[in-house]
Amino acid sequence: MLYLSLDFNFLTMILIADGGSTKADWIALDNDKKELFRTRTKGLNPVILSKEKLHDRIIQNYEIYQHKEKVTAVFFYGAGCGTPKPTALLKGVFESIFTKAKVIVEEDMLAAVYAASGGKESIVCILGTGSNSCYYDGEIAHQNVVSLGYILMDEASGNYFGKQLIIDYFYHKMPKEIAEAFKKSYNLSPDEIKLNLYQKESPNAYLGNFAEFMFQFKETAYMHALIKKGFSTFFEYRILPYKKTAAIPIYFIGSIAYYFKLVLEEVATSYGLTIAGVLQRPIANLIAYHQQEH
Questions:
Q1: 138: region left, alpha or beta (phi > 0 left; psi from -120 to 50 alpha)
Q2: Domain with 35 in it: what CATH number?
Q3: In a domain, 7, yes or no
Q4: Whole-model pTM?
């Protein structure tokens, strides 16, 4: 977090946030579009969290709560905000907290477009806790399919790979050395896993935590094959159906894409495509977009 020695007493501010299922990054700008502070909350996915839980996660952040009366606009781009009902739920929560603010809630895919391509024609993909893609024609973001989330879709995401690792471990498909390390790293009790998947909140984020294990063994043949298969599935379902030529730049955003960039580029090359850029987090570029556009 960045804290600036500024007197906020007479300032109004704009909040811009990029929200995933695991965490949400926030930046406050003053009316001259200069940065005031950065902060982070837990994820704010309205598909999997209740109204009360969303509210609590926001107001528990000290930087946001102490300045809530000064906020005149909120631009929130989040996971789970691709359909009307959850979007309206989250918008209502924001409006109840930031009572003087204009609130705009959009899907995280749009933030990815603004951050990666600067609003130019492109294919933009998210590979974080969840996954998604769109073709942006310069004005409108087109998706080849509506995302149905971590149970049915989210190919090559953190929760997808976490699920694959657990499956391989229990079906004894994981090499012995890696399986032993996996067992030491996590509580793999069946009761613990089922409790987190079927009774606790944010099961997708829970699965996504297992994906961190891939970094430790990313050079092994097993892990390389696992990652490559996931990325290939993503290309087949989420990129190739747009039927665009290699002239259209392809951008990726998210930790999975960022930390396994070499495998991602390998898969792209196998399809005759080139990746124009990979960002770990979109928030910095998103701020630049808003400073220019709003």
A1: left
A2: 3.30.420.40
A3: no
A4: 0.80
